[in-house]
Amino acid sequence: MSGIGTPLEILFAFVLMLGVLVTVHEWGHFIVAKLCGVRVLKFSIGFGPPIGIGRFRMAWHRSGTDYVIGWIPLGGFVKMLGENPDETDTPESRAHPDETLPSKPTWQKLAIVFAGPAMNLILPIVVFVGILWVGVDRRGPVVGTVEPGSPAAEAGIAVGDRLVSMDGEPVGFFDDVERAARERPGETLRLEIERGDAVRSVDVTVEGRPGLDVFQANQEVGFLGIQHTRQQAVVGVPDADSAAGRAGLQTGDRVVAVGGEPVEDWAELAAAYSAQTGPVAFSVERGDEEAPQTVPLEAPALGSLTELGLIPAVVLVAAISDDMPAQRAGLEPGDLIIAVAGEPIGSFATFREMVLASEGRPLEILFGRDGETRTVSLAAQRAPSPTPGVEDEVFLIGIQGANAVLQGAIARDRVRNPLESVPRAVGMTVELTTLYLGGLKRIVSGEISRKNIGGPIEIAKQSHMALQAGWDRFLNLLVLISINLGILNLLPIPILDGGQAVLYAVEGIKRRPLSLRTRELVQQVGLVLIMALMGFAFWNDFSRHWSSFVDWMKGL
After folding, report:
1. Domain 317-402 top-level CATH class
2. Which of 396, 424, 433, 518 could cross-link with 514 by S-S, CB 3.0 to 4.6 Å?
3. What is the rounded CA–CA span in Å between residue 446 and residue 444?
4. Which of 26, 83, 178, 192 is catalytic?
5. Beta bridge partners of 257
């Protein structure tokens, strides 16, 4: 929070996020109440007095309803005639007895109560339909990296192959295959791949290995060994006595040309090198040197980069964290991690998941330094998650890898036919809702730390970060919080919509209204529960951001 611009941006993102969510929620109550013939006295977005300067006020009266936008953007409400038990005998309720909420049948009361959460669950569908109409970039079904020794490599899949279908179903995006593979360890997938002008089918048996689910819990996951990202042409030279080592190539060199032929990723590097028939020179960028330097080979080009003594630098250590297993084991910046437990590392993503899923078991790591290979054993330790907004502890070894990947192929996901986009939007909303319910269940059971519960400060922070990242990220967060709001409001806690629905259902069964004393007692219990939950969320917010807030205040 540095500079006056950032707090204003945070406030703008927060108000925009909550403003949309609250308006949609309260509009649901409002419109269904109107349809049921209930007189709505006030429709307020925000609390407190109306926003205004001088005589200008964001408040107006129309058709018997006061519309207000208040100063405090932490919610909103719809006030209906006769809604409060102590306001059933007023001049207005006596003048319009058929327009009071208590006069309506139970099913209409329930419809009014459920309309708010329902709108929060419908909003994601509308947002997704809009996103699909505009179109969004997604990971195209093109293989960017094939890890050595993986099931995909053994099946003959190569970098640049386009995934056409899986088990007879068309593949639209890379995620389709990646998700299916992770969910089906031990099974065989029939993939149809396109290479050049030829299309062929291959059977790939998905390898099962320890991994993480979407909630970062350990489980067996499927491993194919393909990545969407492309491996940058950054080389590792584990053996100083190899032809590459003798020529002067070093681990961490980024090859920009081979024999004058520009290269960008590892596949282009391999193709350019294999095309050489005589002596060859590498143009490389090394460290902080501004100009590329030329490294000529003394002998004609060998058959492959592996024979030359080069491997992809997929896990090149850029930094080491203090007092972490990697530092205690003697790893240093510039080291190249080659294998773990005898298995070659083909991508940083694979290495990261192996560490996270290790549960503290010793890992035997083969790494290269100064043209020599060495082995070290270390065990990951629990440490705060580096993922923003996640408060759980995860297993880490304390290294930061150099970014050695490039973006893979991008495909535009655009659907403008509502007969196709609406069912897809519904499916996406159901999937996210199911995911949210699974997370809520794990928070209640303690499998996910309750420190992850956030309040207004965390919502403001995440909204600001999402808005900075782009409107697509902001809309995705809007969808998630809208589902959150819809589900939480359905909980049978008095004051919340779910609690009100329970009270109306009880009254419908008894065929008479609850006593004023009973309603007051129930509302008090609900208020205590809600205040406790809000207090816990605020405590998490302040605990999480207190040091940043203090630093910001000092900066002022």
Report:
1. mainly beta
2. 518
3. 5
4. 26
5. 262, 283
Cα dihedral 540, 432, 425, 472, rounded to 10, equals 40
- What does the alpha-carbon distance between residue 361 and residue 365 come to, in Å, rounded to a whole number? 12
Structure tokens at 46: 């925000």
- This prediction has a pTM of 0.84
Catalytic residue status for 26: yes
DSSP 90: S
For residue 553, which phi and psi values (nearest 5 degrees)? Answer: -65, -40
* Domain ranges for the chain: 5-133+428-555, 235-312, 317-402
- Rounded CA separation 162/232 (Å): 19
Q: Looking at the predicted structure, is the pLDDT value of residue 170 above 80?
A: yes
**Which sign does the torsion angle of CA 140, 144, 146, 147 carry?**
negative
| Count of CB atoms situated within 10 Å of the CB of 83 | 19
Tokens 């004023």 locate to 516
Gyration radius from the chain CA atoms? 30
> Which one has a higher pLDDT value, 553 or 193?
193
Contact 327, 376 (CB under 8 A): no
Overall average pLDDT of the 331-346 stretch: 92
* DSSP three-state, residue 442: helix
CATH 2.40.110.10 fits 235-312, yes or no: no
